[in-house]
Amino acid sequence: MKKMTKFALTGLAAGIAFAAFTSTAQAQEEWTMTSTWPENLDLIKIDQHWVELVNKLAGEELQINFRAGGTLMPGTEVFDATETGSIEAAGDWPGYWAGLNPAFSPLATTTSLFNGVDYLNWIQQWGGRELYEEIYGQFNMVYLPYGITNNESGFMGRTPIESIADLEGKRLRLSGRDQGRVLEELGGSQVTLAGGEVYQAIERGVIDAGEFSTPGVDFNAGFAEVADYWATPGWHQSASVFGVMINKDAWDALSEETQEILRIAADATMAWSLAWSERQSTEATQKFIDAGVTINQFSEEDLARIQEVTNEVILRGACEAPDHAKVYQSMVAYLEHYATWRDVSAPYNMSRVMDNLPSLEEIEACL
């Protein structure tokens, strides 16, 4: 009798454990996530890398069903869809939303200011992460930056650009609010096109030259087939950040442990993305050379002039919007603080040595 009772109790315990396991399995969250990037643009690999990590590490509680950009909705609609909860998450480049808040522009990229390591330092240790959370938080979203690429290729086209004097009167495809303002001060005009349209615009002469991303991304997008000239460095986007927008309600439904897994996966993807894009850019640069594309580099004098114009544009924008000022204040404060160590460790430092920054005092006066 005792043996039967013991067996019954053991069976009951096993049944309870099985039921709990079944309940947990049934309670698994399933998210739909898309991106601003279609399948044929390599930047989607950053989104895919993060999704794969999350699905491996948080599979018992969360599985993300990822769809390439354009398969669920146009890339321009993913912000609203995530904000309202139509989808749980979307990969993005913050600069696309600068019309909603100008602070999104420096959260995405800077003209002639941060490089990739600067963004990494700033996000991880100098308060950048909190600013992404704050700005996206205004739109019912949590934001995890998970991708960094270093400076972009530059301008590619069928018209040679050898100096900033050659920008006068040129129609150039260029992303970013602040970037467009700098270009206009230098005599060029900004043309806004989706990434997938740049190839045809160069081919048909709709633009004099264009840019999209790093050399690796640009080569795989076919730019070597239509461009004869390449003006470098890509001062207009000295580095870029990518990440995932997550609907706040969907985020809050996760356990703290799963939320932490998503953050860890974002940090791991961020480190991977920088090394991946630099390796890809190195190999692609050689491919552009082998394809016969002529590379022209801006002179030090030209780059110094670009920096002067950039500083003016940053100060002007800072006084137009407090959030814009807040982000740039944090960035310039980081550069000034980091210089204590950075400059004395040159040339083995991990960031740019700069002697012409936007005025921190003037930015702070706009807060």
* CATH class wording of the largest domain: Alpha Beta
CATH third-level topology of the largest domain: D-Maltodextrin-Binding Protein, domain 2
Q: Biggest sheet, open or closed, and with what strands and sense?
A: 6 strands, mixed
DSSP strand tally: 11
Query: How would you classify the helix and strand content by structural class?
Result: alpha/beta
Alpha carbon gyration radius: 24 Å
Output mean pLDDT: 92
Number of helices: 15
Indicate how many domains the architecture comprises.
2
Brief account:
50% of the residues lie in helices and 17% in strands. The termini are far apart. It has helices at 2-26, 44-57, 78-84, 104-108, 116-125, 128-137, 177-185, 198-203, 215-220, 223-226, 248-252, 256-290, 300-318, 322-342, 360-365, and strands at residues 29-35, 62-66, 89-92, 141-152, 155-157, 171-173, 189-191, 209-210, 229-232, 234-247, 294-297.
Please specify the SSE layout and strand pairing.
Layout: H1 2-26, E1 29-35, H2 44-57, E2 62-66, H3 78-84, E3 89-92, H4 104-108, H5 116-125, H6 128-137, E4 141-152, E5 155-157, E6 171-173, H7 177-185, E7 189-191, H8 198-203, E8 209-210, H9 215-220, H10 223-226, E9 229-232, E10 234-247, H11 248-252, H12 256-290, E11 294-297, H13 300-318, H14 322-342, H15 360-365
Parallel strand pairs: 1-2, 1-3, 6-7, 6-8, 9-11
Antiparallel strand pairs: 3-10, 4-10, 5-8, 5-9
Keywords: Metal-binding, Signal
Protein name: ABC transporter substrate-binding protein
GO cellular component, one term: tripartite ATP-independent periplasmic transporter complex
